Amino acid sequence: MTNTVQLGDIVQLRKGRKASEVYDRCVTGAQPYIQIDEVRGCNPEKYASDAKGVIVTPADLCIVWDGANAGTVGYGVEGLIGSTVARMRLKYPEEWDTEFVGRLLQSRFRQLNDEAQARGATIPHVDKSKLEVIALPRIDRSEQQRIAAILKKADGIRRKRQELLATSSEFVRSAYLHTVGYRHPSYGDWETTTIEKLAEDRNGAIRSGPFGSALRHGEFVDDGIAVLGIDNAVLNRFSWSERRFITPKKYEQLRRYKVFPGDVIITIMGTTGRSAVVPQDIPEAITTKHLATITCNKDLIHPEVLSFAIHSDPLIIRQIASFNKGAIMDGLNLGIIRKLEISRPPMEEQLRFVAMLQKARAIETYSQSSEGSGEDLYQSLSQRAFRDEV
């Protein structure tokens, strides 16, 4: 077994303080002011000067000491640390590598944060006694650097996946605007209609879930007929999260709230204005009162186009805001949804956008999987590294 050493034996801990002078720009004599965001790696936004301030160098480690982010660790920063941050300076820099120690502590964030939250104080703060007894493998500094380099590479893979997701989202928004949105060259020639006219021509094509005593929380059971809620649409794409069910007997009373494959569901309470398309393999299901449901006339509008328009088209969002003007709180209801106007693009353009959307989602799904995200790789390497197994 590898010999270990406690963190308290290799670092000197010193809390930061509120700087006497803080500036919004760099001035003569001021240094970057290191607070929570800077510990996380963001560029400094403020500068400070304080003759009694606590200075950190790139060779030091920083830890967020107080608040909801207590236990967050960073390194490679330089400046004056604020009162919510503490400096950890290596006592034996010839024996210990800053990045190695930093990555080990970052892998312990959940533990450190949970311990801070559990202390019962009004403002959570790091438990110094537990921080100082964290064990590190006693290995040569050259080996520490090798391990840190491996973890840095794995972390880079993880971050690139995250950047890919962000780029994919930006691409889809741009694709929408240029293929079926107002930036299309022929946008002005398209028919302007309302969402009500894009729904199937039948009663209940635009509907909300059961209100009041029609469906109580206590009537949910462990298995049976699915009940969709906000969590199924909050990501602006359909996803299964919390599972809710009612009995077949209860379903017979609420059958008119049934959802069908291809329906568009919209959040109208809580987090409003999110939308998603119900998948083709949906089991028998209804919705809660927190959702509105639209059964589209698919000859006129593709459900994915309508769903994307509701949550991301700036012209639709502006209309919703205007309907809510003067309201105590923002909200959506069936009346507003029916009145929303949209310029209906040709079906050929709609299908072009849907094809691009599906490709982007395939990339996102892979990037978020354990195989594609790099998260499992990084966590596995971290655990093995600090057991001296890489």
Structure notes:
The chain has 390 residues and is α+β, with helices and mostly antiparallel strands. The protein folds into 2 domains: 134 residues, DNA methylase specificity domains (Adenine-n6-DNA-methyltransferase TaqI, Chain A, domain 2), CATH 3.90.220; 154 residues, DNA methylase specificity domains (Adenine-n6-DNA-methyltransferase TaqI, Chain A, domain 2, Alpha-Beta Complex). It is built from 13 helices and 20 strands. The longest helix has 39 residues. It is elongated. The relative contact order is 0.12. The model has no long low-confidence stretch (mean pLDDT 90).
List keywords for this structure.
single chain, 390 residues, alpha+beta, Adenine-n6-DNA-methyltransferase TaqI, Chain A, domain 2, 2 domains, five-stranded mixed β-sheet, four-stranded antiparallel β-sheet, 20 strands, 35% helix
